Amino acid sequence: MKAKRILVTGGTGSFGKKVVASLLQEGVEEVRILSRDEGKQDLMRGRMADPRLKFHIGDVRDRDSVERVARGVDAIFHAAALKQVPSCEFFPIEAVRTNVLGSENVVRAAMNHKVKSVVCLSTDKAVAPVNAMGMSKALMEKVARAAARELGQDADTTIACVRYGNVLYSRGSVVPLFIDQIKRGKPITVTEPTMTRFLMPLEDSVALVKFAIEHANQGDLFVHKAKASTIADLVEAVKQIFDVPDHPVDVIGWRHGEKLYETLASAQELLDSEDMGDYYRLRLDDRDLNYASFFSEGDEDRAEREEFNSHNCDRLDVEGTKQLLLSLPEVREEVEAWQAR
Ligand SMILES: O=c1ccn([C@@H]2O[C@H](COP(=O)(O)OP(=O)(O)O[C@H]3O[C@H](CO)[C@H](O)[C@H](O)[C@H]3O)[C@@H](O)[C@H]2O)c(=O)[nH]1
């Protein structure tokens, strides 16, 4: 990454902040951030205080602002998104505007300015999606990969996507909620104890994106072979960490747009994939519009592959989940404060 100019859309979010700090530490020449909220930019400018960091106010929905900021950059991490399931569910057209049309703007600007690499951040909720957030992210992947197909392997710009699962301890997610419920003496609310989720520390998502930048061929989509746990084990792990074995638990039932388990790679995608150790490379299907899909070139072995999901992956038990939680400084701080109360 040395001596490069990198653009991070949505750079003031939790992923953005983490990736920006790591890029600056690696010695990149310039990091540009494109985001909407001047307050968040100002906070980050003050906290990071690094002259290589350049803040651009704008919105991926607005092609002009994306075109301006993409000029002269070598790589783009496209993280700007509407990512909350409920808000996308109630305002789906807003998800289309940001996640689909905004991504098209980013990809087109990258092509226009011959940016070498673009990585678009997606989610496991984009595979066989059941909610508007996942659907819009699935379409983002399609938009990015259609542009990749159009460019072909020898183009100036390489476009890739990554998918990751639930980021542990991210704002508004279940782990900080459970901890807050313990601290306030309220019952822990569990939707469905047998539900599973891939659990990823934020560092792993940064590593995944960097892996994609380094290894992408045109149109590749990378997933991390993340581990998963059941919500029941997650609750038990949190209770053990905070040493509250008798804390009450309420089972409240499923929320809108939820799945029992999440899928990081479908069976069809895994048919044309490469096992790269900690990661899968899911290759672009670059057949053109006129391929004989229904007559002679269908996927005969499609039924033989199993998808990679949070039920059939390497599952963490309570002890494993505890170790993963305690690897996060934020959780350790919470536990120390709890013990010192
Ligand atoms: O009170 C709660 C809340 C959630 N859960 C369960 O905990 C798991 C994780 O829930 P989160 O809310 O942390 O995560 P989601 O899988 O629902 O997805 C979250 O992470 C996504 C990004 O990965 C989006 O940001 C999304 O809006 C956000 O809800 C789910 O199985 C959910 O059913 C509970 O048991 N009790």
Q: Could you give a short description of this structure?
A:
Helices cover 41% and strands 20% of the residues. By secondary structure, the chain is α/β, with parallel strands linked by helices. The mean pLDDT is 95.
CATH class of the domain at 5-164 and 201-225 and 264-301: Alpha Beta
Number of alpha- plus pi-helical segments = 12
Q: What gyration radius follows from the Cα positions, in whole Å?
A: 21 Å
CATH superfamily of the domain at 5-164 and 201-225 and 264-301: NAD(P)-binding Rossmann-like Domain
Report the order of strands and helices.
EHEHEHEHHEHEEHEEHEEHEEHEEEHH
Quick one: how many beta strands?
A: 16
The CATH topology of the domain at 5-164 and 201-225 and 264-301 is Rossmann fold
| Overall average pLDDT | 95
Distance between the termini: 44 Å
Strand order of the largest sheet: 3-2-1-4-5-6-10-15-14
Helix content: 40-55%
User: What would you call the shape?
Assistant: globular
Unreliable stretches (pLDDT < 50, length at least 5) are none
Main sheet overview? 9 strands, mixed
**Which band does the percent of strand residues land in?**
15-25%
Class of secondary structure makeup: alpha/beta
Bound molecules: galactose-uridine-5'-diphosphate
CATH architecture of the domain at 5-164 and 201-225 and 264-301: 3-Layer(aba) Sandwich
